[in-house]
Amino acid sequence: MAAPLTLLLVVAVTIRAALYRSSLAEVIAERVEVVSPITAWKRVIEGLALLDLGVSPYSGDVFHETPLVIYLFHFLVDYAEITFMLADVISAIALYLAVKEYNKQVVRKKQKFALEADRYPQDCLELIRSPKEMLYIPLKVAMFYLLNPFTILSCVAKSTCGLNNAPQIITPHCFKISFAVFLCLATYQSIYPLTLCAPAMLYLMQRQYIPVNYRRASFWWFVVQYLFMYLGSLFVLICLSFFLLGSWDYLPSVYGFILSVPDLTPNIGLFWYFFAEMFEHFRLFFLCVFQINVFFYTVPLSIKLKDHPVFLMFMQLAVISIFKSYPTVGDIALYMALLPVWSHLHRFLRNIFLVSCVLLACSVLFPVLWHLWIYAGSANSNFYYAITLLFNVAQILLVSDYFYAFLRREHHLIHGLYLKKKDGSEATLVLK
Amino acid sequence: MAAYVNRCSNLLVFIFILSVFLFVDSQQTTPVNEQHTNTADNPQPAAESATQTAEEGRWEATEVDEAALGDSAADKLGVRASDTFVLTPTPQPKDDFQEELVIRPLHSGDIYASFQFRTLWETDFMRENKVSHYRLFPKSLGQVISKFSVRELHISFTQGYWRTMQWGQPFLPSPPGAELWVWFQDSVTDVDAAWKELTNVLSGIFCASLNFIDSTNTVQPSASFKPLGIVNETDHRFLRYATLPREIVCTENLTPWKKLLPCGSKAGLAVLLKSEKLFHSSFFSQTVHIRPVCQDRECKTTSWELRQTLNVVFDLHTSGQGKREWSLFKMFSRTLTEACPLASSSKIYIDVTDNPQEEYFELSPATPLLSQAVVLGDRRTFSVYDLTQQVTFGTVRSLNLLIRWKSTEGDMLRPLLHAERYVAGYGLQTGEIHTVMYNNHPFRSFPVLLLDSVPWYLRLYIHTLTVTSKGKDNTPSYIHYQPSKDRMRPHLLEMLVQLPPHSVTEVTVQFERALLKWTEYTPDPNHGFYVGSSVISALVPSSVAMDTNITQEQPLFSSFFPCKEESSYFVRVYTEPLLVNLPTPDFSMPYNVICLTCTVVAVGYGSLYNLLTRSFQIEEPNPRLAKKIANFIRRIRGVPLLS
Fold first, then answer.
1. CB under 8 Å to B562, separation ≥6 — which residues?
2. Cα separation, A95 vs A112, whole angstroms
3. Packing angle, helices B590-613 and A309-323, rounded to 10
4. CA A310 to CA A206: how far, in whole Å?
5. Helix (H, G, I), strand (E, B) or coil at A312
6. With a CB-CB cutoff of 8 Å, which residues 415-434 of chain B face chain A?
7. CA distance A51 to A55
8. What pLDDT, on the 0 to 100 scale, is given for residue B128?
9. What does DSSP assign to residue A281?
10. For residue range A364-406, what is the model confidence (pLDDT) as tens digits?
């Protein structure tokens, strides 16, 4: 499998390198869909320029990346293109390995065990995935990540989103300690990966055969251990940033900025127009509602999906990328890369065709309506807003469809594929 | 003869009544009025300095006289008592008022008229016991100075833009809109609070929207605005600078400004300030400058200077029915009949440098007095009309200056430094500010300080800053940059750039336009947002030796900026303000947006909630309503139910 992967990497790097050399790179770097006020490369450069002038980059409201990023690029600013390509390549390889590992686990441990124990009903054999059809899934995932136009755009725009994605992806591949370190790196970059704590813990527990049972001491011992490592490394990172800059200015400027949404530059998310049109005295209330909304799904999802941490992680990534305050297409690319892992759910998806059409149409309409509003002046902000709404509805439908399909498959795996009513006629499944 | 005496006595009676009336009104003006009658009765053609001392002597005499005369009205006793109480322990308040009008015919056919009023007062506003006795100095401003511990205050209201390339340098530059800059005493602890309060007070005094000055348009320049008066400390923490480029200046700002003059608009040059004419002009600017100045060369005694100037450019070419001539009456619809009686000097200067043989225009009535002054690096010749002399008014007892053009030729000396600014780029996402500075000096290069204060909603990217002259990079030797904070403070960019001789220097910086909250837009959002002028301060090489002795007697208009060295003079140039459009949300649909976005969030929440809380079950078809009713009846009847 190494050869196709290498080929894929070469193709991906070639495309990116070619785009860097073309005049498109500048256009892409200005697109609001691709870069947000946090991740824009222009702002990173600005931060570096401010440092050169002897002004703290956090004294103004232009630079919002973390101190580690500015120090990374302090040394790598001349090799930025290579850094971003490398980040993408590393992410893809990490994804590849992680999915491979996960598949192995699914086939070896779960399915084999269940088959041998004869747990599945007879008619469910066609739902069970054979190792052969799962062979190409890791490669597909890497391909979905590397050749996704969204990833390419975000890499060509040098959006630091690509760098933020890397630690999130590397996470499930590692051992416990580095697991915590990478996750906290992701959290440090943009708060929201905090919710990935739950799937990460569940995943590790599953690998170490620790039952998820809150009456067991071993469960709690593991949680405490893990949280200690996670919070410890977060503490170290935050202190490190403090010592790099010698002030706490970056805390309000990075995290305050993410949470309080002062910059209303249009993007593909739900926040900008909502808070531009918000009545001032309701602002704080809705801000809390919208931010809690992102973190809110963690607990119920973890309870429902406690045996399927990877799917839980997929759900969390999707929820974050839809409801975060400054989303970009790079965030979407991350969870979309995992779609091939769930290719066995396709028979249960209800409106995948409609949703993919809407997503495609929206992706085309974003630049069109932006042009009409900002440059031509023949449309107004409502046009662009309408498209962001539709885009988000489509994403929500996509995610909930996958969630539905996943739950339905699990249900079939227990109760059989062809369900019958009491009178023997064919039954339909409903949610009740 | 008898008739003449009769008329004289009538006049005296009238003047006495008037003086009593004025005494009731304000006890400061009375004695001087009296003194004026004296001077009017026996005009003195002696030298000016001699008159001044003589006047002072007589002034004191009348003061005593007035006090000795006494008045029967009981309510005036208190006033006089306090008067004497203040006067006896401290020496006579040493104040002095001068007024002058400079008229310069411009080569474009316009007329530039600049009024200068200066009140000097040797007092200390900062001492423990408050200053309570005011004579010539306006009390409202004096109280402001002592309450807010102001060291220097400079305020200007301007309507229109000064076209440097057509009109040359003004005597005193000012940017369009309102500009305010204040140096506080270093004893002030909370400068921001004092500044906030001060702007609100000034807003009341001048009937202007200075109360819109807040932290989002206030900056602390580090180098561009140095104190113009006595300098003992220049820590820019005590400096605040703000402009309101959108401010519209009109009559309501002029009236309070006129009231600050000792004679109001009743006498002297101020009678010319009629708003219906002043605001029918190409350019109008009124300023107030307060600063401490030295009285003598060694600076042993200091005094406060209040300088009020009013600059106006009339476009008489278009409004003059094609005839190229103007007169005081045509410009101001008034003529002059007297000087302000309180003024120690009252003069009109007419710039006749380009017109030595009267080949360019003709001036009437002619005056024998000529004066030379070094203004803005150039030696200029002026015809002088001294209004304190009765001769000036001639037999008709009124002065109506008249200039009649003879030819339209003649070219102006190009200003050595001028600047312009514009926004480049299209669309509402990004843009670029271009500031272009011209050094027209043929062989000398000189440094300029450029100050830009840009509101936060245009996010400047300082790494895109480029300075080029003659096609080459011109790295500024000093850059002071303060990035903006959203809704808190503006960008401040100051830099020192060397302008090569005979060159054009272009400074560009890119910016991004922010989308604001819908309540942050002005009522006409698509009109755009104003960005205040850039300020360019420079020491421009002078062709003639400048006068470095500030205390020496010289015309007011030539002595505002202190001059430190003979070879150069200080110039401040303001560029055009910018008008920048921002993307706007739809103001009509906050409710719709809130509803729609909440709906989408609810769709997300609802679908996940649905899947999380429910479980899959086999659908048991619900019996139809008719069947239900039938079964219900059957159950009552005891008949077996339908399946």
1. B228, B550, B570
2. 24
3. 170
4. 11
5. helix
6. 426-430
7. 5
8. 60
9. G
10. 999 999 999 999 989 999 999 999 999 999 999 999 999 999 9
Instruction: Name the residue of chain B whose CA is nearest to A401's CA.
Output: B607
- Residue in chain B nearest A429 by alpha carbon: B618
Ramachandran sector of residue B256 (left: φ over 0; alpha: ψ -120 to 50; beta: rest): alpha
Chain A CB contacts of B484 under 8 Å are: 60-62
CA distance to B348, B353, B456, per residue, from B371 (Å): 11, 10, 49
Cβ contacts of B482 on chain A, cutoff 8 Å: 55, 59-60
Is the minimum CB–CB distance between B524 and chain A shorter than 8 Å?
Answer: no
Buried b (16+ CB within 10 A) or exposed e, B257-269: bbebbbbbbebbb
Instruction: Determine the 3-state secondary structure of B34 from DSSP.
Output: helix
Q: For the beta carbon of residue B95, count every other beta carbon within 10 angstroms.
A: 21
Residue listed under structure tokens 């890791």: A138
Amino acid at A111: Q
DSSP string, B261-299: STTTTTSGGGGG--HHHHTSSSEEEEEEEEEEEESSTT-
> From CA B94, how far away is CA B82, in angstroms rounded?
18
> What is the pLDDT, as a whole number, of residue A180?
81
B588: nearest CA in chain A?
A277
Question: Is pLDDT at B60 greater than 80 in this prediction?
Answer: no
The CA-atom distances, in angstroms, between B319 and each of B110, B283, B335 are: 11, 14, 19
Q: What are phi and psi of B431, to 5 degrees?
A: -175, 180
CA distance B499 to B508: 15
ipTM of this complex: 0.94
Q: A428 vs B619: CB contact, 8 Å cut-off?
A: yes
What are the residue ranges of CATH 2.60.40.740 in chain B? 417-580
The edge-to-edge listing of strands for the beta sheet with B177-184 is B218-219, B239-244, B177-184, B150-159, B283-294, B302-314, B111-121, B95-105, B345-351, B378-386, B370-375
Distance CA B291, CA B228 (A): 7
Q: Please, what is the angle between helix A80-104 and helix A2-21, to 10°?
A: 150
Give the C-alpha distances (Å, rounded to integers) separating A8 from A14, A88, B453: 10, 12, 51
Which residue of chain B comes nearest to A431, CA vs CA?
Answer: B616
Q: Which residues pair with B452 in a beta bridge?
A: B493
Task: Tell me which CATH code domain B417-580 carries.
Answer: 2.60.40.740
Half-sphere exposure of B468 (CA within 13 A, CB side): 8
Indicate the pTM of the whole model.
Answer: 0.84
Nearest to B604 among A48, A276, A322 (CB): A322
**Is B493 within 8 Å of chain A by CB?**
no
Alpha helices in B281-409, H assignment, sequence order: 316-319, 328-332
Instruction: Provide the residue type at B168 as one letter.
Output: G
Give contacts of B608 with chain A, Cβ < 8 Å.
Answer: 297, 300-301, 319, 400, 403
Secondary structure class of A379 (helix, strand, coil):
coil
* B462-504 pLDDT tens trace: 999 999 999 999 999 999 999 999 999 999 999 999 999 999 9
Which of A323, A99, A284 has its CA nearest to residue A195?
A323
**B395, exposed or middle or buried, with CB in 10 Å at 0-12, 13-18, 19+?**
exposed
Burial of residue B31 (number of CB atoms within 10 Å: 0-12, 13-18, 19+): buried
The DSSP 8-state label assigned to residue B158 in this structure reads E
Tell me the average pLDDT across B411-436: 90
The conformation of residue A346, written as its DSSP 8-state character, comes to G
Please write down the long-range contacts of B40-46, taking CB distance under 8 Å and 24 or more positions apart.
B40/B390, B43/B389, B43/B390, B45/B389, B45/B391
Cα-atom radius of gyration of chain B, to the nearest Å?
34
